[in-house]
Write a structure and sequence with these properties.
alpha/beta; elongated; 11 helices; TPR-like_helical_dom_sf
């Protein structure tokens, strides 16, 4: 927040030489400077409140920001901005403006607790999850809802998948009724160790397709395949692989129940992949 000229003007000056008469004049004049500031803050606060009720949130926030600039140590501008964001359901913005206000406002100010409560309420609202999926018919969930949410793009192995972490019910529905999970690793940053593969480890037995951008460091991919249950894996693509890791990688593939659809997109190893075992009738 930019420093306000009013902050310095309204401070009682320190006097090197003081006489009772002129010291009183300085004190009274400085005190009177607070009156127009308080009047401006009050007027802007009333206008911002009315603007937000008229759904003119942009103008309301402008007034709230001006209040903060006029008096950075006053809680009024932060409280008003928090209310405006809350009316729009922008809980993250409420948290941010309250946090900023609590850094500027004196803890002994009577309105400090308002900022704390507004922040706490916003955190609670942001953490709420609407679990309506369990109320829908199974056929709608399986044929319409899941494909609509999941889409066609593979999941990023380094980022938690949002719809798998809403609730246990959501995760169970996606794992049970979706057509398997598809993950990819980035080309720019190789995993290198299993600690970065938590998504792949956690959902290993539900992964249908895995696209690996690069395997040229450590033994993470071979260890991942060997040490986890990838029994549902049907498609495996490796774009780049270091020659030193070839034998270990091929060996790890033999621990998977591979089908003829499983393939590594690498000319040197495609012929070495296990083939589907056919049972005699």
């Amino acid at each position: 927040m930019a420093h306000s000229i009013w902050t310095d003007l309204c401070k009682q000056p320190t006097q090197a030489v003081s006489t009772e008469k002129y010291a009183a004049i300085v004190y009274d004049a400085t005190t009177q400077l607070h009156q127009p500031i308080h009047s401006m803050l009050t007027t802007l606060d009333r206008r911002a409140m009315a603007l937000s009720k008229l759904a003119n949130f942009e103008s309301a926030l402008r007034d709230a920001n001006v209040m903060q600039q006029i008096s950075p140590s006053s809680p009024l501008g932060y409280v008003r901005a928090a209310d405006i964001y809350s009316e729009q359901g922008k809980q993250r913005h409420v948290i941010d403006v309250c946090t900023r206000g609590m850094m500027m406002v004196d803890r002994d100010d009577m309105h400090y607790d308002l900022l704390q409560r507004a922040k706490d309420n916003a955190i609670q609202r942001q953490d709420k999850r609407i679990d309506f999926i369990s109320e829908l018919p199974i056929d709608i969930v399986a044929t319409t809802f899941l494909p609509m949410i999941a889409g066609d793009s593979p999941l990023d192995s380094l980022k938690p998948c949002p719809y798998l972490h809403v609730s246990n019910a959501w995760r169970n529905y996606f794992l049970r009724y979706s057509d398997g999970l598809r993950f990819e690793t980035g080309d720019e940053e190789e995993e290198e160790d299993l600690e970065k593969c938590t998504q792949l480890v956690r959902f290993a037995r539900h992964i249908k397709a895995l696209h690996v951008g690069r395997y040229s460091k450590g033994t993470w991919l071979s260890d991942l395949l060997r040490e986890n249950d990838f029994s549902s894996l049907r498609e495996l693509y490796v774009d780049e692989m270091g020659v030193d890791y070839m034998d270990r990688f091929v060996s790890s593939l033999r621990s998977i129940e591979c089908t003829h659809d499983t393939m590594a997109k690498h000319d040197d190893i495609i012929a070495l992949l296990p083939t589907r075992k056919t049972s005699s009738t």
